[in-house]
Structure formats: structure tokens, C-alpha cells
Automatic annotation (TrEMBL), chain A:
It comes from Mariniphaga sediminis. InterPro entries: Pectin_lyase_fold/virulence (IPR011050). SUPFAM superfamilies: Pectin lyase-like. Residues 1-20 form the signal peptide. The keyword Cell division does not apply. This is T9SS C-terminal target domain-containing protein. The keyword Transcription does not apply. Keywords: Signal.
UniProtKB/TrEMBL annotation, chain B:
It comes from Mariniphaga sediminis. Residues 423-923 form the TonB-dependent receptor-like beta-barrel domain. This is TonB-dependent receptor. Its main location: membrane. InterPro entries: Beta-barrel_TonB (IPR000531), Beta-barrel_TonB_sf (IPR036942), CarboxyPept-like_regulatory (IPR008969), Plug_dom (IPR012910), Plug_dom_sf (IPR037066), TonB_rcpt_CS (IPR010917). Keywords: Cell outer membrane, Membrane, Receptor, Signal, TonB box. The lineage of its organism: Bacteria, Pseudomonadati, Bacteroidota, Bacteroidia, Marinilabiliales. It is found in: Cell outer membrane. Residues 1-18 form the signal peptide.
Length: 394, 959
């Protein structure tokens, strides 16, 4: 047995030597109109319309560098999990200028998605081969900025911390600062799909992660489909987001942490597997609140049932306004109405009067009511370009 | 194996036909305790005679009868041993013949054979005379006590603490500053990341002695600071050994427990290795593995998923009691002329069941609010875990010697397999910083198999009476440590059912880890004895070279779901049922690779360490022995590895090391030891030495190693953070010792020491503060450190109370240490920012790994004439900082473990060939605990488990 073991290890050693030199490229490459990106973006770069860009790893747009993505461009992440996950990371000081249009949106998806630029030109924005609940095929888009965050890391009360989803060994994952008006670029008409692969328990990549992103950044008309983790997650910052769809995500529809100080206006959350809203409070002494308004939430459909309608912590600071919850199942609740910093205004639940109390953990606060037809909610007319809309989800 | 046995048995048979009897003895210098070479031994009134060999040993073949031996040597008084009884076919042992230097009035010393047996052991003289502070236990003593393994024998050495029933530490300094060697060679243990060798594998009947040095002399490797323990195996057993021992132990909390957790494993698990059942499925190490999106066919994906073992659940089975068996054999044979052949062989087998029914792992945080003192939890895990451990040991050796030369070859093979199965509940609090909040239950299956194969070739040559001696050693060791197919399956439970959630309990994962290490040492020591000012002096010099090579790799796979998930009955045992495998919806399971090529979680490292030394031991003035030495070591560690960024294709910003030097220095290690003999039995010692502690292979790497049970992640030091530049360097230590010691008859001792150690760039395990979601650590150089300590040590017979107490012996060692680390600016600031109301943060703190006190005490009763020995031993270490926190994350301490153990050995039968032993360990039923500590807050668990009380019964028979 000694011999066998020794031999085994010798062969293992040899094997290692050889595999190091071996190149095995059976990975699916869509076609000749694609470009594989394997290293960080260190100078201003434009990804042009009509092409497919393949993310070969975690690609970072470095401080001081702008990545421009033209309308109709498709970005596909290679498969992988944990250390092997792909993502587009915009480091602090870097900029992403990705201005799609309703006619030519920019699509982030997996290499497994057979969607091609021609499909976009033809107005077919949905995936030709992947169902709208297939997730975890790649990572996601992470935007980091220098706006204030309420974090308490070892330096106590300040500055910067590491974004979840990126190993701390990568310094480009740091975010936060004191520039409330920081500008991380422009994101318009972007659909992010099938991502959210995990890098370890409790450590995952959201569809769109916004860490310390400042109010100088423009983010509107964004769709997240089938992300394995949260649809959109805010870590502090001051950025405002308008016209958002979060559909079939594996965890929370909208997640906020570290005293995000912006406003989310006009959005639709459809059947996340976690909470529809997971809204946390400050983690440091900086205290800012955010406003979430004019939204429609479909909390269940068939076997897809979300957890809490709203989940807040005791120290959360959130103004919730004009939200319409429909598709409410038994057991789904507004969890915690005692948090002093959380206000409810025009929150309408599509349930009967007598059932209303069962959907609130605690006394039903003023501002929360049962309705049979809504008087509040999202203006869905702006979402015609989304896959969710084309799939008839609202 | 059977073949081997038959060879050895035929040896024994051959020997037993001899009709003569034998007298075998060892001759030592009464003053120094050292053996004497070339001493003439004559059977009085006959022409039969011989001379002692280089080990001071001799053998005489004589017919049955009673003899007087005359032992003479130049400048020593002639020693006559009277009335030596010899029986046919038996060996009469005189292993303690002490010769006194001749004085002016030449005379003869006459003693009886009976007196020889009770003379003070040479070891005690060696201790008294030794240049370094030395303690130990000799084979003679072990023969009297009846201890079975080295670890039991080590308990009798004062100042030694036993950890985990197998590791031996000195003075409360942790593994980083301790070292164990086998036959003087620095060989890796079964756990290659430890400096210490486990001691429960050496049968005492094949052990010559075990010595502990508490300070450095130039002939030792420079990388120890607390203590060096050396185990020397026998080369020429004094008499024939054929012995068998069996033992069993029962832990009422753990054994015959029907809740015990296990899993199927492989049919060869009982031999300590996996037969391949847990091997990596073929194709899994490819860059692209079959997935629904890889371009492989559906059948290929299905086949690939099915090629993984579908067992993911821990299952319950009744645990058995522990049992072990060993067989050992040894003898020496006289060949033609003055040649002797010695051999030893042993095989041992051990099977242990460990069951923890309430393991706790906690992650706690501090509040930033200075008035909130209590800590809050981020994650709390509770669970049960069953472990089955098998250890197979083979040890063999042959040696041949003439009067002036000796050549020996020893070989050792250890095979160890540990299978673990656990079930845990994981409660994560979303209100804690960086946490998302979830509840999950996990099933964990693990297997760790380790092996060690070591060969030692050793030659000793003495140049007649010239005083020159050459000792050379070559020792290659090959070791492996593999964790094939670590499985973790954690369902996340929520109000609307259970599923696998990447952002909560995580997707099911499987990990393969493998480690191979080669360690080759060559060493040459030359000794010259001479006289200086008419007093004995000794010059020693030598060279050594160590080459180490390690190859390490981790491969990881995640279970993914192509589409949604639905688990109406969340049961890990059904997760990989065919109906859940791709393309069967809704679960549609496939595997995704977590591996990048080249793998950032793989490395190859090597070390070349060349040492050269010279030391001189002399008495410039009477009664003042001085040993000065200088050692030089040229150490170069090279590393091949890369970080994730490089591996992901970012060759510009990523880091890649291709056999690059990551640690390298040429160091001088001076040492001065002064021994002043106040009286014949009192010494005053003072010493200074410089030593070193170097980071390990794992510490100097980009590896990120997760413990799937606790979810904690070890990070290599190469990753940089604010306040950490990624350059881990060695620690240089200045050691100062003073000691007064009093030696009394039959090994009794009283000593008091004071010591001071200064640490330049000590390495400690630090919690990475930037990582708030997962619990991650990294070894770093923290600020400089120093420690002051006092030590009181005694071993005393209680005959002074009354003769009735003369068989009682009390021993104790008390060490008290004040250790201080000067915090780095960043550590001080981060502690300061979390300063609580009323708390004053100082810029110094306790050193990690150093206990503030260590108490060892034991009382034993020995009645050697009737073969009875019993002892009660107690050991505790003060609260020891284990992982350095700061800011949000509190410090982690190891709680004192009050270890109280009882052992009893009784030899029975007419010739006392049978020994029965009975032991109770952990009488106080102490728990193994470490905890988070914060100002004015209740301590919170970091980890907790109960080893329980254990009763063992063993019998050994010597043929």
C-alpha cells in the first residue's frame, strides 16, 4: 500500500505539472462576433453595439477608468461558482456608461443564453432557450462608489468596507467614502439575467449590487431576471433608482443595508424566493434613510411564493409610500411594524379587511390598508421593453 | 505481512536454542552520566572477557552460575560486581554500571549486582551535567512504571502538558514555538501543519528515552523556543522483547450510543484509508465539466452528476467502544567477532469512536455603541458530530554495531483515517453586521486520511580512544494528508418551505483537498572530547541540510439547480435521487465547478535550509561549566502559486509566483550556557540563546481553506489589506534563562527558574476585519512581543513524612508568564474605536498562544517490587488568546481545561510478564471551550464540545 500511495502522489505531481501547461478550450464560444474579456479594464474602453462580450472572470473597471457600453450590446458571463464566478465590477472611481434604449437594451446574461445581437435588433429581448427561472449561471453587475455608508468595520465608524460577493483579497471590492454626489456613470435600459452564483455560504452576488454609489449616478429602466441572490441590493450610498423590475430572483426582491440614502421610484417586484423587501438599518453611527415609493409587488404566483412582504430591522430607517401588494399568500407578512424609523403611507394589500391583521406582524399601522382595487402602485407603461412584460407578468 | 512475521519468529526460535546465559550491561561515567567506550569487562577467574562498545554496552556469554565481574578502564577505579546470577537461556541485565574516576589512593570499588539495580539512573546524572535545561524519561524508568505509549510516559516528565491525548507541549507555549523530533530528526507529524509529532504512536518498549530540552544549544535546529522533545527509539534492545497488548476504553457519553452519526464511506476505512470510493469522479478535474450550459450532451451531464457519490446525509448507528492492539518485538544477536545485530519491530492498531452531542460554534460581534457592552451573535451553530478514527502504525529497525561503529536503519509507516459525520442547526441573525439572516440545517460528511513514511539511516563512528566521534543521519519522510469528498448539504428553511439558498445556508458543496509533502534531512555531527586545564572539554561541530517540498490543491464543486427548486420533504438523503437530477424539473441538479485553472487554491512550495554549527563545552574554572555555540542557518523558502485575479486571466494586476523566494535569510544563532555547581547536587544556570520561528507552507501562500463544519476560512498571508502588506516574515526570539536546581537521590529534584523572551515580529492568527459576511483569518506579523516567566518544578518522594509514604511521589511544575505584544497602530486604533464606556484600551496586550499560567501536578505511588504503579495527574493552562480580534470582532480565548487523569499499572504473574492497566481520563468531565471576550460582557462561545470521561482497561503480555 505504501508503494501505491507513493506512486499515486508521484503521478499526481506529474499530472499537476502537465495540467498547468494544458489548454482546454471546449468552453462554449457563441460566435465570431464575440470577444472574450479576461483582464481588468485599465483604460477607457467602449464595447460596441452588435457584439457579444464574454466575461472570462471577475472583470474590474479600475479607478479613473470608464467603460462605455453601446445600446444593443450583449454581455455574457462564463459559468462558474465560488472563486470561479464571473462578474462585472466597477471599482470606486471607475465609471460604467451603459445607455441602452427601450428599442435596443443592453443585456447581461450567461454564455448559456443563445440570445444574439440580431435578436435585439429584431425586438426579441427574451432568451430563446433559457427559462425565466434559471439562475446562478454567472455572477452579476457590481457598481461601487465613494458615497457615505453606515458601516462599522474595524476602524469603527467610517469610510469603506468590502462588498459582499468579492473576496476581501481583492482590494477593488472596497466601497464607501464621503462624496455624496459621487458619479459612477449612467445605467439605462439594462436587463441582467440568470446570474447570482454564490461564492460561499451567505456570500453571493446580487443581480445589481450598488455599494456606496453616489447621487451623481443615473440608474433607470433596469430589469433583473432570475438572479440566484437578491435582485438589487443597496449598501449605503445616495443614488436614486427609477423604473425597476425584479422578477423571479432567488432571494430578496429589493435589499437595502448600511443606510442607503436615496429613493427608489416606480418599480415592480415579481415573486422573489426571499423577502419582497429586506430593509436593514445603519451598521455604523451614520444614519440616513431611504424612500421606496410607487411600486407593485406580486408576492406569489403558482408555486413561487415569497417570504415576508416587508422585512425591516428595529433600527431600519425607511419611508414606504404608495405600494400595492398583490398575490398575497397565507403567512406572508409585513414583518415588524414597531421600528421607529419605518413609516407606512398608502400601503395597499390585496386582501380582505378581516385577513389584513394576519398579514401584519403586530398592530396594523395607519397607512396600511386592505383594498380590492388598488389606488397606488407602479406605472407599468414604462416597462414595455422588459422580458417580464413580454412574458405577461403584469 | 505474514511473511515478515515468520522471519521474526524464526529469529526468536533460533535464539532460544542457546543453552548459555548472558550478562548484558551498560557502563557509564559516574560523574557525567555518559557511556564509556572500550572498558574491559572480565569474568573473574576465567578468560572470558569483552570490551564495552560505543554505546557503553557489552554482552558476555557464560554458562549458568554465579559470577563476579571485573570492570576496568584507564584512569578509573576498577569496579567489581559480585554475585551476578546467570540462568541458561536468560539475560542478566546490569544496565547501570557507574565508574568513578580514580583518585590518588587507587582503589577498587566492590558492589553487588543487586545494588546496581537500584543505583541512580544515568539519566539523572546527564540532567545534572547537561548544558541545556533537560528533563526526560529513560527506558529503565519506563520499564518500572509500565506505561504503554510515549504519551503516557511523557506525563511523568515535569513541565510537560499533554493536549488532545497526543500532543506534548512545554511551558505553555503553543505549537508554533514547540518542536518534536524522532531520533534527533525533525520529521513532520501526521498533521503536516503542526510542528509537533503525535506521541501516542510510539510503544514505550521500543523507546530508548524521551528528552525535553527547554533551551537551545547550537547542535539543535534553531526553530524552537519553548521546548524541544526528542524520542529516541531502541536500536539494541537489552533483552528479548516479544509482547502483545490489547486495550479497550469506554466513554459513557460517547460509546454504545445509538445516536452516533456516521456514513457509509469505503470498505477499507477500518485500515485507515479510503479505497477510492471517495475519489474525484473522472473528468471533474477538467477545465470544463459537463453542465447544462457547457455544450455537453444531456446524457453526459446526467452521467457526470451520477458519478458523484449520492450519499449526502449523516446516518445514525450505534458507536462501539475504543479498542487497540499492538505487537512488538525486538532483540539483539551477537554475530561473529564483536559484531552485534539489533532489531525492533512493532505493529499497532487503534480504533476510536468520538461522539459530541452538543457542539457549539458561535460568531459574535460587538456593538459600536460604547454603552452596549454585551455581544450579539451573527451566526450560532449547534449540532452533533460522530468521528471514527483509525490509526495503523508500523515501526521497524535493524542496527549493526562493532565496538567502534554503529549503523542503523529504522522505518516507520503511519496510516490514519478519520471519518466524520455531523448534523447542525445554523441560526444567522440578519440584524448583525454583514449578515443576511437565515435558518438552515446542515449535514456534513468528511474524511481525512493521512500517512507518513519515514526512513532513518544513521551511522556512529568512534575513533578508539582519540575522543573523536562522528554521527551522521539521513532521513527522508513522505507524508500525505487528503480530504476526499467533503460534503456539506444545508437546507435553508423559511416560512414558505425549505430550499438551497446561495445567499443563506448555501448550495450543497463538495470539496477535495490533497496534500503531499516530502521532507529530507541530512545531518553530520562531529564530537571531540579533550581536556582543558586538566578538565574535560567537548568540542562539537556539524552541518545539516533540510529539503522540504509540499504540493497542495483544493478542488470544489457546487450543486446547482437548472430552474427552480421544490423540496416538500427536505431530506439530504434524497437530494441526489434520480428524479432530482437534470433534466428532471423542478430541481434539475447539476454540478458547477468552483475551480479556476491555474488553481489559485493550489500551491507548491519548497524549503532548503542549511545549518552549520560549532559549540564548545569546557570548564575554564572549576565548577563552572561553559557551553558556547554558534549556529548559522541559511533558509530559503520558494513558492509557486497565484491569486484569484491572476488565475481568472488578469495577468496584469494579478499576482503569480513561479518558484519565487518568499522567505529567505541567513541567520546566526549564538548561545551561551553557564552551569555553576554550587555543591555536588546544586547547580546555578544562566543561558542566552537566539532562536527563530518561521511561517509554515500554508501560511506563506494564497490558499483559502474553509472548514466546512464551522464555515471559518483560513487565508494565506499573501493577501494584502489596509495595515497588512502581505509580507509575512519569520520571528526572531532572544531567550534568557536563569535557574537554580537541587538534585536529590533517586531522581528527586527541586528547581526554580526565571525566563525572559523577546519576540521580534511574532506571527499570530488575526481575524480579517474587512470581511464581515464570512469569518476569515490570516496569519500576520503583529507588533513586537516579550514575555517574563517564572517556573517552579519539583519531584519529591514523600518518605520524609514517614517510611510508609516512601512509595509516594509528588511532582509539580508551575509556570507563570506575563506576555505583552506592542499593538500596531492599526490594531490599537481599531480597538480604541470600539472602546466601551469605562474601558481603557492599552497599547499592549497578551500574546496569542501563550498561556498566562500552566500548572502540572501529579501524585504517584510506585511499588516496583510488587509491580504496582498508580498516579493521578492534573494539568491546566490559563486562558490563552487564540485569535486576535479588533473592533467589531472580539478576541477569542481558549478556556482553561482542567484535565485530571488517573492511571494504574499492575504487573502480575510469577515473572511479572503480564501488565494490567486501568485509566480514567478527564475525571472532572471538563469541556473543550473557546470563547469571545469583550469588556464587561458575558463570554460567548466560539466553540464548545465535551470530550466526556473515559475509562480504559488494557492488558499486555511479554513473552
Amino acid at each position: 500500500m505504501k508503494k501505491i500511495n507513493l506512486l499515486f502522489h508521484l503521478t499526481l505531481l506529474l499530472g499537476l505539472l502537465f495540467t498547468a501547461c494544458e489548454e482546454d478550450d471546449t468552453q462554449l464560444i457563441p460566435d465570431e462576433d464575440s470577444e472574450k474579456i479576461t483582464s481588468n479594464i485599465t483604460e477607457n474602453t467602449t464595447w460596441t453595439s452588435g457584439k457579444v462580450y464574454v466575461l472570462g472572470g471577475r472583470i474590474t473597471v479600475l479607478d479613473g477608468v470608464t467603460l462605455t457600453i453601446e445600446p444593443g450590446t450583449i454581455i455574457k458571463g462564463e459559468a462558474g461558482t465560488q472563486a470561479n464566478s464571473t462578474a462585472l465590477l466597477i471599482a470606486r472611481g471607475g465609471k460604467l456608461v451603459a445607455e441602452g434604449t427601450a428599442e435596443k437594451p443592453i443585456i447581461f446574461t450567461s454564455v448559456a443564453d443563445e440570445i444574439q445581437p440580431e435578436d435585439i435588433t429584431a425586438g426579441n429581448f427574451e432568451s430563446p432557450n433559457l427559462d425565466a427561472d434559471i439562475n446562478g449561471l454567472w455572477g452579476g453587475v457590481i457598481l461601487l462608489g465613494k458615497a457615505p455608508i453606515s458601516a462599522s468595520n474595524e476602524s469603527g465608524d467610517v469610510s469603506e468596507t468590502q462588498i459582499e460577493g468579492i473576496p476581501t483579497s481583492d482590494q477593488n471590492g472596497l466601497y464607501g467614502g464621503n462624496e455624496a454626489e459621487d458619479n459612477s456613470g449612467i445605467l439605462k435600459y439594462i436587463s441582467i439575467r440568470h446570474g447570482g452564483t454564490n461564492i460561499g455560504a451567505g456570500n453571493e452576488i446580487n443581480g445589481l449590487t450598488l455599494g456606496g454609489v453616489g447621487s451623481g449616478t443615473v440608474i433607470e429602466n433596469i430589469e433583473i431576471v432570475a438572479n440566484q441572490d437578491d435582485g438589487i441590493e443597496f449598501f449605503g450610498g445616495t443614488v436614486n433608482v427609477k423604473n425597476l423590475v425584479s422578477w423571479n430572483v432567488g432571494d430578496d426582491g429589493v435589499d437595502t443595508d448600511q443606510s442607503w440614502g436615496g429613493t427608489l421610484t416606480n418599480f415592480i417586484v415579481v415573486t422573489p424566493a426571499g423577502h419582497c423587501f429586506e430593509l436593514d438599518g445603519p451598521e455604523g453611527s451614520m444614519e440616513a434613510g431611504h424612500i421606496i415609493q410607487n411600486g407593485t409587488i406580486i408576492a406569489s404566483e403558482g408555486t413561487r411564493i415569497s417570504q415576508d412582504l416587508i422585512n425591516v430591522d428595529d433600527n431600519s430607517i425607511v419611508g414606504l409610500k404608495n405600494l400595492f401588494f398583490t398575490g398575497i399568500s397565507e403567512g406572508q407578512q409585513i414583518n415588524r411594524v414597531t421600528a421607529a424609523g419605518v413609516t407606512f403611507e398608502g400601503i395597499e394589500l390585496d386582501v380582505t379587511e378581516e385577513d389584513l391583521a394576519g398579514h401584519v406582524n403586530g398592530d396594523v399601522p395607519t397607512g396600511v390598508s386592505a383594498v380590492s382595487s388598488p389606488t397606488v402602485g407602479a406605472d407599468t407603461s414604462v416597462f414595455g421593453w422588459t422580458w417580464a412584460s413580454k412574458a405577461g407578468k403584469f | 505481512m505474514r511473511y515478515l512475521f515468520s522471519i521474526f519468529f524464526s529469529f526468536i526460535t533460533l535464539l532460544s536454542v542457546a543453552q548459555n546465559g548472558k550478562i548484558r550491561g551498560t557502563i557509564v561515567d559516574d560523574k557525567t552520566g555518559e557511556t564509556l567506550v572500550g572498558v574491559a569487562v572480565l569474568v573473574k577467574g576465567t578468560t572470558t572477557g569483552t570490551a564495552s562498545d560505543l554505546d557503553g554496552q557489552f554482552t558476555l556469554d557464560v554458562a549458568e552460575g554465579s559470577y563476579d565481574l571485573q570492570i576496568s578502564y584507564i584512569s578509573f577505579q576498577t569496579l567489581t560486581v559480585g554475585d551476578v546470577q546467570v540462568k541458561a537461556g536468560e539475560i542478566t541485565l546490569l544496565d547501570n554500571l557507574r565508574m568513578k574516576e580514580s583518585t590518588l589512593e587507587l582503589g577498587e570499588v566492590v558492589v553487588s549486582a543487586e545494588v546496581i539495580r537500584t543505583t541512580e539512573a544515568a539519566l539523572n546524572t546527564i540532567k545534572k551535567q547537561s548544558a541545556s535545561i533537560l528533563d526526560g524519561i529513560s527506558s529503565e524508568k519506563i520499564r518500572l512504571t509500565g506505561d504503554n505509549t510515549a504519551v503516557e510516559a511523557a506525563r511523568r516528565v515535569t513541565g510537560v502538558s499533554i493536549e488532545g491525548g497526543k500532543y506534548v507541549y512545554v511551558r505553555g507555549l503553543g505549537d508554533r514555538y514547540s518542536k518534536t523530533t524522532l531520533n534527533g530528526m525533525d520529521i513532520p507529524g501526521l498533521d503536516p501543519d503542526r510542528n509537533s509529532l503525535q506521541m501516542d504512536i510510539f510503544p514505550t518498549n521500543l523507546m530508548n528515552n524521551m528528552m525535553v530540552s527547554k533551551n537551545f544549544t547550537a547542535d539543535m535546529p534553531a526553530d524552537f523556543t519553548g521546548g524541544l522533545m526528542n524520542v529516541e527509539t531502541k536500536d539494541f534492545p537489552e533483552d528479548k522483547i516479544v509482547s502483545v497488548s490489547l486495550s479497550t476504553s469506554f466513554n459513557p457519553d460517547m460509546h454504545l450510543n445509538s445516536d452516533f452519526l456516521t456514513y457509509t464511506g469505503s470498505p477499507t476505512d477500518f485500515l485507515g484509508f479510503d479505497n477510492g470510493t471517495r475519489g474525484l469522479p473522472s473528468g471533474a478535474d477538467q477545465r470544463v465539466i459537463p453542465t447544462p450550459i457547457s455544450g455537453h450532451s444531456q446524457q453526459e451531464v446526467v452521467d457526470f452528476v451520477r458519478s458523484f457519490n449520492p450519499e449526502l446525509a449523516a446516518s445514525r448507528k450505534t458507536s462501539l467502544p475504543n479498542y487497540s492492539a499492538s505487537f512488538s518485538l525486538g532483540n539483539q544477536i551477537s554475530l561473529n567477532g564483536d559484531k552485534k545485530l539489533g532489531y525492533i519491530f512493532s505493529v499497532s492498531y487503534k480504533s476510536e469512536y468520538t461522539w459530541y452531542d452538543n457542539i457549539v460554534y458561535g460568531e459574535y460581534q460587538r456593538y459600536i455603541d460604547p454603552d452596549l457592552y454585551e455581544m450579539r451573535y451573527a451566526t450560532l451553530q449547534n449540532g452533533e458530530m460522530g468521528e471514527q478514527n483509525v490509526l495503523v502504525g508500523l515501526l521497524g529497525g535493524v542496527a549493526i554495531k562493532t565496538t567502534f561503529s554503529k549503523l542503523r536503519l529504522t522505518a516507520m509507516r503511519l496510516q490514519n483515517g478519520e471519518s466524520r459525520a455531523g448534523k447542525f442547526e445554523i441560526d444567522n441573525d440578519g440584524q448583525a453586521v454583514g449578515q443576511s439572516g437565515y435558518f438552515a440545517t446542515s449535514d456534513n460528511l468528511e474524511y481525512n486520511q493521512r500517512s507518513l513514511s519515514n526512513v532513518l539511516l544513521n551511522g556512529v563512528h568512534v575513533f578508539k580512544n582519540s575522543g573523536w566521534e562522528i554521527d551522521w543521519r539521513l532521513s527522508p519522510t513522505f507524508s500525505t494528508s487528503d480530504d476526499p469528498d467533503i460534503r456539506k448539504t444545508a437546507f435553508t428553511h423559511s416560512s414558505n418551505g425549505s430550499s438551497f439558498n446561495a445567499g443563506a445556508g448555501g448550495n450543497p458543496t463538495r470539496i477535495w483537498r490533497s496534500l503531499g509533502e516530502l521532507n529530507a534531512i541530512a545531518k553530520l555531527d562531529v564530537t571531540k572530547k579533550y581536556t582543558l586545564n586538566d578538565r574535560e572539554a567537548k568540542l562539537k561541530f556539524g552541518v545539516s541540510h533540510t529539503y522540504k517540498y509540499r504540493d497542495y490543491e483544493i478542488l470544489l464543486f457546487d450543486i446547482q439547480f437548472f430552474g427552480g427548486q421544490s423540496w416538500p420533504d427536505p431530506d439530504p438523503s434524497t437530494v441526489l435521487n434520480p428524479e432530482n437530477i437534470y433534466p428532471n424539473r423542478p430541481n434539475s441538479i447539476y454540478y458547477q465547478s468552483g475551480n479556476i485553472y491555474p488553481n489559485p487554491n493550489a500551491y507548491r512550495s519548497n524549503v532548503n535550509n542549511t545549518g552549520i554549527y560549532i559549540s564548545n563545552e569546557f570548564e575554564l574554572f572549576p565548577k563552572l561549566k561553559t557551553i558556547v555555540g554558534l549556529r548559522a542557518e541559511n533558509y530559503v523558502q520558494k513558492h509557486t502559486g497565484r491569486d484569484q485575479r491572476y488565475a481568472s486571466g488578469d495577468t496584469k494586476n494579478g499576482q503569480n509566483l513561479d518558484n519565487e523566494k518568499v522567505l529567505g535569510s541567513f541567520d546566526l544563532f549564538p548561545s551561551v550556557n553557564l552551569v555553576f555547581s554550587l555543591t555536588d547536587d546544586q547547580n546555578l544556570r544562566a543561558s542566552y540563546a537566539r532562536t527563530i520561528a518561521r511561517p509554515s507552507f500554508k501560511e506563506l501562500s494564497f490558499a483559502q481553506i474553509i472548514d466546512p463544519v464551522s464555515n471559518r476560512i483560513f487565508n494565506g498571508s499573501f493577501f494584502t489589506y489596509p495595515g497588512w502588506d502581505g509580507n509575512l516574515t519569520e520571528t526572531r526570539i532572544d531567550n534568557f534563562d536563569v535557574r537554580w536546581e537541587l538534585f536529590m537521590k533517586s531522581g528527586q529534584i527541586l528547581s526554580m527558574s526565571a525566563f525572559y523572551k523577546k519576540f521580534d515580529n511574532p506571527i499570530e492568527l488575526v481575524r480579517i476585519p474587512e470581511q464581515q459576511t464570512s469569518t476569515e483569518y490570516q496569519p500576520r506579523n503583529v507588533g513586537n512581543g516579550r514575555l517574563y516567566g517564572v517556573e517552579l518544578e519539583f519531584r519529591k518522594d514523600l518518605d520524609f513524612i514517614s517510611p510508609a509514604w516512601s512509595h509516594f511521589n509528588l511532582n509539580g511544575n508551575f509556570t507563570f508568564v506575563e506576555s505583552l505584544i506592542d499593538m500596531t497602530e492599526i490594531e490599537f486604533k481599531s480597538r480604541k474605536s470600539y472602546e466601551k464606556t469605562g474601558e481603557t484600551i492599552k497599547d499592549t496586550r497578551q500574546m496569542a498562544g501563550q498561556a498566562p499560567y500552566v500548572i502540572n501536578g501529579g501524585v504517584s505511588y510506585n511499588h516496583y517490587e510488587s509491580g504496582f504503579d498508580a498516579g493521578l495527574f492534573y494539568n491546566v493552562k490559563g486562558p490563552t488568546l487564540s485569535i486576535v480580534g479588533a473592533g467589531l470582532f472580539p478576541d477569542i480565548f481558549i478556556k482553561p481545561f482542567h484535565s485530571l487523569n488517573f492511571s494504574l499499572n499492575k504487573k502480575i504473574g510469577e515473572s511479572k510478564n503480564t501488565t494490567i492497566d486501568f485509566k480514567v481520563s478527564n475525571i472532572l468531565n471538563a469541556r473543550t471551550e473557546s470563547y469571545y471576550q469583550s469588556y464587561h460582557a458575558e463570554n460567548k462561545p466560539y466553540s464548545q464540545m465535551s470530550p466526556g470521561r473515559k475509562f480504559s482497561l488494557g492488558v499486555s503480555y511479554r513473552f
